[in-house]
Amino acid sequence: MRVELIDFESAGMLHPITRAYLKQDSQIQSLYRFAPTFKGLEESLKERETVSVDRSVLVSALKEQYSGLKIPKQASRSIESLANDNTFTIVTGHQLNLFTGPLYFIYKIASVIQLSKQLAEAHPDKFIVPVYWMATEDHDFDEINHFNLADRTIRWNSDQTGAVGRFQLDDLQQIIDQLENRIEGVFESSVWKPFFEAYRSGKNLAEATRILVHKLFPNESLICVDGDDVNLKRQFQSVVEKELFEQVSQQQMESTLLEWEKIGFNPQVGGRDINLFYLKGSIRERIVQTKYGFEVVNTDIRFSNDEMRHELESHPDRFSPNVVLRPVYQEMILPNLAYIGGGAEVAYWLQLKQVFDSLDVYFPQIMLRDSFVYIDEVNCRRKDQLGLSILELLSKCDDLVKQHVLKESDVHDFFARQREELDRIENNLVSRATKSNVTLEKAALASSKRMANELDRMEKKIIRSEKKNADVYAKKITKVQDQLSPAGKLQERFWNYIELQKQLGDQSLVELAIKKADPYQSQLKVLLSV
Q1: CA–CA separation, 322 vs 327, rounded Å?
Q2: Residue 495 DSSP code
Q3: What is the distance, to the nearest Å, from the Cα of residue 304 to the centroid of all Cα atoms in its chain?
Q4: In 3D, which of 25, 309, 284 has the Cα closest to residue 162?
Q5: What pLDDT is stored for residue 387 in this prediction?
Q6: What is the secondary structure of 38-69 as a DSSP string?
Q7: What's the whole-model pTM score?
Q8: What is the band of 263 on the pLDDT scale with cuts at 50, 70, 90?
Q9: Main-chain dihedrals φ then ψ at residue 62, nearest 5 degrees
Q10: How many CB atoms lie under 10 A from the CB of residue 233?
Q11: 174: which residues sit within 8 A by CB, 6+ positions away?
């Protein structure tokens, strides 16, 4: 498998501030703490050693979350090691997408595993644990309830509401049964089996996702963390109280946004006065302040100030951070060195340093995840026949065809020259004919007109022929682009794990992604099957 690298900027990818960050632009140095380099990661390691977390609570919570589950020995070892001061984490986070959702779910986890290995190799006295932070408290079910398989979208419809990690899987079983019937003989293959086993054995979506991740990454020291945990939330309780009664995070966000405006960047996310949800049963709704205290939007739930303090003290698990405070919560409970995310995630993390500083919480290194696109042997040959680069094939097909026609075809220039020559012949013919007999002028003109008509007909025939050639050229481009960017989306944002694993055959997608991953090589990695 050969790898070709494409620069993100040339491909027109990533938020402008993410690109500036990767270049370590001096304009934005105040927005981060550690440069996006391996040296920056080592600096984070050195500094993190001076910042403690409650490891006993973390280990106890993880053991409870994993209770009763069969997991790899490496993961059990990771959990135990977190009790020790020489153990640190590198984290990525993602939603609980059905059947993993788009491919970049796999690439995120592969990136965090690879980076953990690199750091552990450089510092053998340290134990580095790769972590997948499960977005169990997210309530946007429509974003996660489907995945694409070939030309179909498989969708899980459910009336359940609230935090998706708590969703029961009874109404998902019908989808599993339908898939099993459709694929018949393929059911027992290694591609499908982990999914069916996970969704049939997990007590809820959070647990099923945890099981699935360990089945897909069975040989790694990866652990999955569920933030929807009362004991972990107690670690976050002081921040929740400050957010409710002082609303510090939004003040800091607004200050950061002023900095962004000065240097010409648009924000990735916007905060709210209170960046918290109230989470109870099937409810996850925003908390807003009123002149009487607090209320939970879209509900009849109200609290006076004293009642809210009592609620927080009694039930810290009922307070759920939004996109602004979720990173703060994560960093308060984990001995974390770096967060690995997509381009948009990197951009919004760069809005948060002042929030972290105001709450006296450690701000980790921010890294861009690996991004892959796969091209099979057939399309590699087509690419070579077309004479186009991967970067060019990421452009619009119509633009590429127009460029090709303009480059390859000289039809219009050729026939323009022939018409100029025909005009000269006509003038000579008329001159010679009238010299012999003035009455022959009309016959000479008629003869010249027939030649012009034949020239027009031949031009049309050649144009039709070249149009067919251009159509063949366009079809070849389309076939390659259907793999590079199916449905007009980058492959990793449309294809599912199953789709690519089936194409790879005996070669493991997970092992390939981990092997080829390198978050410090911040370019699109094209996997060429040649």
Answers
A1: 9
A2: -
A3: 41
A4: 284
A5: 86
A6: HHHHHHHHHHHTTS---HHHHHHHHHHHTTT-
A7: 0.87
A8: confident
A9: -65, -40
A10: 23
A11: none
